[in-house]
Amino acid sequence: MSRFDWPGLLRAGVRGLGLRPAEFWALTPAELHLLLGGGSAPLGRSGLDALMAAYPDKRGDQDD
């Protein structure tokens, strides 16, 4: 028995999202999950600080 409700997922993709069947089948499960409203938790302050440290807007005297 499959863990996924393929008919229900296909119906959500085609009817709900307006995808063509080929577009639906070309999606990864993560892409489909995101399109159907799933996703990760919002970025918190510590995550933002880590991104800012890794990708600063300025380096020394240079502007990017």
UniProtKB/TrEMBL annotation:
It comes from the Bacteria. InterPro entries: GTA_rcc01693, Phage_TAC_6. Pfam families: Phage_TAC_6 (PF09550). NCBIfam families: phage_TIGR02216. This is Phage tail assembly chaperone. It comes from Marivita lacus.
